[in-house]
Amino acid sequence: MKLQKILLLSAVIFFLTSSALETRAQTTQTGKVYEDMSRPERLAFVGEQARRIAREMSGRDYDFTPAFEADIQRAVTQYAQRIGNSSGDRPGKTNLRVVLETGNAQAPKLIAAFRARNVSPLIGLYIPWVESEYVNIQSPNSMGAIGMFQFLPKTGEHYGLSARELLDVEKSADAAARYITDSLETFKGDPMKEALALLAYNRGAQKTERDLSVLLNDQNKQCSICALTATSTIAPLGTAPTVAALKWAGYEVSEVDSGCCGMAGSFGFEKEHYDISVALGGRRLAPAVSSAPAGTEVIAPGMSCRQQIEHLAGRRAKHPAEALRDSLQV
Length: 330
Description:
This protein is mainly alpha-helical. Helix content is about 50%, strand content about 0%.
């Protein structure tokens, strides 16, 4: 599972209840379905439902950042666009109603397996949604993963599954629940341990722990999953190596905890996303850059971030390589 896949966590706000899958989109208190909401209404709705789902899953409130909620909203919109489509049964393209019908048939055994291990049934419904869209995939992928839960044979063996049992939905669901239980223990000190356990399902607990050790600080530790996904498009290890290199070259570095700049490749250029893009960029990033003294070098690794800084703050940001070149006079 890529880092970005955790953003799909709240895509289930359309379809998941505490006991089963629904086949309709949830609506707001005003009676509007998601497809009929304005952009601000969608963002508010997704934020509210994301917190509700997290609370049902964990028993605690998750303190999502606005940037993280905006990323979730984009993922939800992508799912909504698949309702009723006719793009065939390719992964990620199947008519969402078909996915829901498949999931509805599998839900009772998935819920039972996870409840038996005292793990939230929402997690039991989420994992096979993201991994296989509830299809018990018979042929291994390029990495060797197979079945509804996409276990690697080595991981399956660790949890007591034979090669044949990797295709047994109930037994693989039980193994997945035990995997999550182990991960919850690993991340028990984090207020978002459930989200981290989901991330570690495919990424691995050790890699997730490594990234947390590099990325977390006093400013972002209340939303560890936000910190991981906010930096995942920059570099697998976050900003730490860049900061270290700049300090080595003699720069005094001050990081802006801005989350997503709002551009995200072509996202911010699209007319229907422009307001969201500007709102995200104007939340922390643009004010921090605008208020910096005139002689301050502004440095951003991402091309999209540099474009957004120039657009919203009127200042040119350099790539770290440019800053290193100038400092070292190469």
